[in-house]
Records
---
Amino acid sequence: MAGTDRRRKSEAADFCREDAPAIILVEPQLGENIGMVARAMLNCGLIDLRIVNPREGWDRDKAEKCSSGARLVLDRARFFTSTKEAVADLETIYATTARPRDMVKAMVTPRQAAKESVELATRELKTGILFGKEAKGLHNDDVAMCDAILHLPLNPAFASLNLAQAVLLIGYEWYTMNDDTEERYIPETRSKMARPATKEEVIGFYEHLERELDDSGFLRIEEKRPSMVRNIRNIFARVELTLQEVQTLRGIVAFLSNGRSGGPGKGK
Amino acid sequence: MAGTDRRRKSEAADFCREDAPAIILVEPQLGENIGMVARAMLNCGLIDLRIVNPREGWDRDKAEKCSSGARLVLDRARFFTSTKEAVADLETIYATTARPRDMVKAMVTPRQAAKESVELATRELKTGILFGKEAKGLHNDDVAMCDAILHLPLNPAFASLNLAQAVLLIGYEWYTMNDDTEERYIPETRSKMARPATKEEVIGFYEHLERELDDSGFLRIEEKRPSMVRNIRNIFARVELTLQEVQTLRGIVAFLSNGRSGGPGKGK
């Protein structure tokens, strides 16, 4: 549906930033690659696609199909007849290319380029990243215009990526530079029972379990009992149990004890 | 050529590590995707591919074609009939999946998972990363087996990646965690002239330029001369000139001065 479609697109655009690096494709050959680049860009919140002299007759329909719905990037793409024009308004540009043997030029990692892009953006300066023709790379003249060469750290004996993958890795570094996702966390769920259990609830479970273990004879060796209890408590202490999970565990204990000492729930 | 081919492959394998995370594809549907995953793995130095119940009749030839030469990963791939068997020897496993609504489960970024994998490897513990069926993702039962969910920070309204791209981003984080490429550096070139110029060579150029600027009248206003000279020196001081570049600049000055004051090289 057009309506749904429009809504989805505008949401994806909401996470894009005008001050993100421009992606500049110099002489791309295939509509498929342009489309997949658009997709990778939108994945990473990049919206400024610039295309210099694409191969005549590149297939716009194929580009759109391969963009997996990133049409808004293709719709906003701008076309240029020279790299010079494509980068005219940018302050810093990076070349993605193999290290040129006889140029003296700074090399940067994608993480460093992302850091610099973010820093430059705070001063309202904009960066761009140049990608050359599939398989052939950038012209040396275009590389010479660039401030630095962006080198992807990958298996040196197997480093070749397709255009969209290179855009994805570089865009990902930029996106994560701006992203504040915690490295490791346990998200809240909608269920009220999913709240972390209080210590009273957790200790209630421990005591329930230990009563049943006493009853069953598992803890019968007096002098070993304290350390066994501590070891068992430490297993569950590592888990950060929720209230739901405490109740599940109490149910397990009750049911397992059932055949031995009466109905479930007996060992309250 | 077979010989060349073999040499290239063994070189790519040299940068792979057995203690890197295993990549576990659960019920992959298309040979193309398996091939592209193998390529992304080799890009990132990952070599341990495990495949659980691929779709019957998946195309091994297509996989090889789409692997762009990463056959050694495909050749070493192991096949399993259950996820349980595929992960049996691993100590920590991560699920790549959308956040399940009603599970209480730690979420980690790919960078954090990479950090943990490297740390666990130092204790000879091995990690694995589970990927579900294209478009469908992992079964909840497989997710429940995992220690944490690996969540890729991307445009939340446009986060869908294909299998190989997800493997690439995760593998890239692992590879860079082990990689010591400097964030920014100027590599040495083979040319002897590309060595950084000494201060004597650089100052020789400054003085040459300033003599010609004096001769030409550019620095004629006495009270402004010192600050103009400093400003000009500061332009070039930011460049970290090589010997070659100093000589090029002296040539430029000589030739530009040529029409004015005699032959090139006059202003020695």
---
Amino acid sequence: MQHGRIPSNDQFSGGLNAIVKRFEDLGFAVERKASTAGRPTSTGKPSIFGHIPDYPVGSLFDDRMAVKSAGLHRHEVDEISGRPSDGADAIVLNGGYREDFDEGDYVLYTGQGGRKNGATHQTEDQTLTRGNLALVKSETDGLPVRVIRGHRGAEGLSPASGYRYDGLYRVERHFHQRSTDGPFIYRFELRHIEDDDPSVKPFSVTDEPPDGDEAPARAHGTTQRIVRNTQVTQWVKDLYDGRCQICGVSLLTPTGVYSEGAHVRPLGRPHDGADMVSNVLCLCPNCHVLLDKGAIRVDPETFMVLDVLTGSEVGVLRLAAGHPLDAKFIDYHSTHIADQPMRQPGA
Amino acid sequence: MQHGRIPSNDQFSGGLNAIVKRFEDLGFAVERKASTAGRPTSTGKPSIFGHIPDYPVGSLFDDRMAVKSAGLHRHEVDEISGRPSDGADAIVLNGGYREDFDEGDYVLYTGQGGRKNGATHQTEDQTLTRGNLALVKSETDGLPVRVIRGHRGAEGLSPASGYRYDGLYRVERHFHQRSTDGPFIYRFELRHIEDDDPSVKPFSVTDEPPDGDEAPARAHGTTQRIVRNTQVTQWVKDLYDGRCQICGVSLLTPTGVYSEGAHVRPLGRPHDGADMVSNVLCLCPNCHVLLDKGAIRVDPETFMVLDVLTGSEVGVLRLAAGHPLDAKFIDYHSTHIADQPMRQPGA
């Protein structure tokens, strides 16, 4: 058997073009940048993800300029460092947004924007652009985000003066919600990555293939996605013999059918969904991701599954006898998870 | 909008029947048991997963009978407790298999069987049946397995006498391999679940819907699957704009395309695959699961993607210019991951 490098073939026709076309079909004007998305351009330095050499967790800085000079954060004023094309690599927590909620290892972070003419409160809806879109890219791809706390941040968690590098976090989820001021804000859930995580080596997104690692540790890299199982999800998966309630696929492996139990209203704060069979669907991994990310939603009255971007019907939710699914959880998902104002960014 | 319990509809036609038919098409004789798979039958007590009340981690027992009486393990002699229909809930590590490798938090566990007439070495190939199949069910579904160590186990990790309950482990992966005696054995990788995991409540698989939990902690339940990201996987995902190299799907979400970087030869021991672009594919979650579980394989010469169970062609691996995929990793996957002797259990 021949080994060695496989020559590339021409069977791959770019997926991005199909997506651009889909956006154009939806009425968006899509302009392709000169360089490939996600690659450094002449308009800015590439984002660096992970710890920065010589600046361990706990490093202190007099001001934002010092943070910037160390390479920990791209800006002097903006809270979010990064670009939509390659993700956010750092944020600053310094008490600027009243909706910020800081528990140390868990942070509920407010997106940027929505403040006209230097207001210190929300005057209009935030949009999924710039730093907010960069944080979403970090969530989707599991990129590590450096957290820098300033002296105006949460008491007991923030430095007495200046700024402190507090290590790497991952963006677990985001959603949008009305602020106490009225207009919509984006909220990002960040969770601390253990400091002994082997993904400490900084990296940037490059055109050239990265060198990689010939013998990495098992738990290599940052977590992009975790699927859990409980007695409740197990029961629902067994009820459907692992068949996806949305697309009907059974992922048959040599050792059984693989499926996942999806909580329609997410567990834990801030959504506080229940781990009960009335809140769980049996899905294939693809449909699970689409549901979690709000790309599809279920109509609470007809159980039609709808593509959120196009509004088109994907199918009908399959429901087995004895599965007491509760429509109020479906309604919650439609309202809070699958209702992102992307099609009308200003709405 | 109406809320409340959604009445079940009749649009669901059992997925299991389709699978049974597929097996029958493949020439298997499939006999449906009187009761539903995964439910307790009159032929045995249901398996109980998780910690057992009154027997905390570290509990000591004089002998296997005492372990059984406590409800920690189903058998007095067999090492694996559980049934293929509902998973393995406990194992004993007591030095009975020379291929067992015990590091405490990480265990490489040998399957049962393959020893004719009470031999203490492997005389024939182990089969994916009984306890071995039960452990695979625990892997697929993320069920917690109690580990009980006996005094003949690894030095420094085992009790001086009798048996000790050492907490919950998850089955991360399994594979089959030649034993030092010659015949094939199954090997299971188990990893310790932190003791403060909220999934401590014992549960069994029941016909009735479980009560569940109205306000569970966020990190509820055991881990069924973790997807990680590295600079290397990120680069490959960007190269394909997130489009699956096997099925061609782009999972478009309101915030970007979701895809996963799959290591063809798995990372970490015992496979020791490289985190290099030559070992990584850009896949959708469904194809990623099928590849990881060995349900599909790629022909190292033609790059045809093949269904391992049927041998039929699924498609051709899409390969972009500049992606130096290395055929030796594909070959490794075909030989070690996607070569489970299920079709000929005695082979």
